[in-house]
Amino acid sequence: MKRARFRLLTLLAGLGAFLFIVMLLYHAGMARLEGKPRSLLESLEWMGATFTTTGYGRDTTWSHPAMVALVLVVQFAGMVMVPMVIALFVLPYLAERFEQRLPRAADPRLDDHVIVYRFGPAVETLLQRLRSKSIATLVAETDESQARTVMAIIVSVGFWHADETKLAPSMTNRFLTSCV
């Protein structure tokens, strides 16, 4: 969660800096290149209308090639960056924020059960047989996507990152102790 939040905040800061610089370039360009000074508020309005591709209103003609180039760059940046920001940052952030948390320890109510380490096709068959015989099962998983698969088939699962066991072997012992 922290990484996604950091990425989102970095994106927002970078996007804000980009838009502020574009606004200042437009403000300076209109005064120096076009000879039609704009207030900072008018430059902000232009930046918002151009970047979001919503239209201009009264400010639609530029004669200096540098100003035309600036307008085109901001228009294309808006057309590319807005969907990219949504797809690469906002949707993954929301998905991570609202996805179900994986259990980090076994359900304490689980008695007389079988512990299976890692999930796969052979284990899936074993789980079906154990379920048909009403034998409680816990799958200890180190792969997050596999742990979510196990949760989807309504089997108790415990999850911890494989790299956490390299850093802290005692965590594996604590996890397995909580399973037994």
Structural write-up:
- This protein has 180 residues and is mainly alpha-helical.
- It folds into 2 domains: 2-98, Helix Hairpins; 113-179, no CATH class.
- Helices cover 64% and strands 8% of the residues.
- The protein is built from 7 helices and 3 strands.
- It has a 3-stranded parallel β-sheet, sandwiched between helices.
- β2 (136-141), α5 and β3 form a beta-alpha-beta unit.
- The longest helix has 34 residues, at 65-98.
- It is rod-shaped, with a radius of gyration of 28 Å.
- Residues 165-180 have low confidence and may be disordered.
Biggest sheet, open or closed, and with what strands and sense?
A: 3 strands, parallel
- Write the CATH fold name of the largest domain: Helix Hairpins
Strand content: 5-15%
Mean pLDDT: 75
Number of domains: 2
Q: What labels describe this entry?
A:
180 residues; mainly alpha
Quick recap of the structure?
The chain has 180 residues and is mainly α. It has seven helices and three strands.
Give the topology.
Elements lengths: L1 H31 L7 H12 L13 H34 L14 E5 L3 H12 L3 E6 L2 H9 L3 E4 L2 H6 L1 H11 L1
Parallel strand pairs: 1-2, 2-3
Helix pairs in contact: 1-2, 1-3
